[in-house]
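Hi R.,

Here are the chain sequences for the assembly we discussed:
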Amino acid sequence: MSVTTVQAETSQCLFEFLHMEIVSQLQQEAGPDKKGEVQQRLESLGHRVGESLVERTSRDHPRFKNELDAVVFMCKQFWVTAFNKNIDNLKTNHQDTYVLHDNAFRLLQHLSEGNQYREEAQTYLSFACGLLTGALSNVGIKCQVTAEVTKMPACTFQVKVLL
Amino acid sequence: MAAVCVAVISKQNFPLYLRSVNPQNEADLQFQYLVHASIDVVEEKVSTLGTPKAGQDPREHYLGLLYPSEQYKVYGYATNTRVKFILVVENTTSQSRDTEMKMLFKNLHVAYADMLCNPFYTPGQKITSRTFNNAVSSIFQMSKGFTSKE
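And here is the predicted structure of the full complex:
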């Protein structure tokens, strides 16, 4: 591994641990049965981060041709900056919906495989949802992002563009 | 080619930052007019993406000379997030080079991105960051350096 990839891995680990701590802290604060509240908090955190991160990552990228171009940028450069990997598959109906598949989502990799914690795992996707809405809204695409765990640690993000 | 005024305009065309070389100067109001007038030209340049002009990449952030006035020349730059940077330079006979302008804008963009990553800054608010202010000062300095070379 080259020096830069080692560095990227290191900061990635730190981010994962920080994220885990944030999730558990928020859960403790909110108490049991307040999953919606926790997810909302995480999303708003992600929104702010996404907004600033996209300004930095798209600095040397030429202006986006269209909506698809912007979403592809999110799947590639943006996702690499945030999670050190690409989105594995992007599907679109060429109207207002984009579906992003990640076959090994970073924030789910430390959770056990199998269906036992599937409900809880949902919370770990909220931050990334917020990240995407923040980034896309800053480049001028108002959208709603929902996430779903398909089979651990794979998940899908559905981006619905609001007109 | 000495830069006399730097402005940052948000995507909703709200002024985030405006600073001229001599803050106590009476020309300040004039700069506000100049910058305000340039917004229309920027919108036009950004929206006519489909019809590229010869010799310029239509997807580039740097928009080139927006318009010249008697005393000043106004240059523009638009980021992917539709934040606009406006630079007003003195209108001298010597031709200012695009590469130099691009470099100034690039520095400004870097400073802006750094500033936005500051957790104490709320996006859409006026820019009061000292680091950003310093970066703008160095841009004024740098643009003076370009003149002496010519």
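Chain B has one domain: 3-149. Strands of chain B lie at 3-9, 15-20, 62-68, 72-78, 84-90.

Let me know if anything looks off.

Best,
T.
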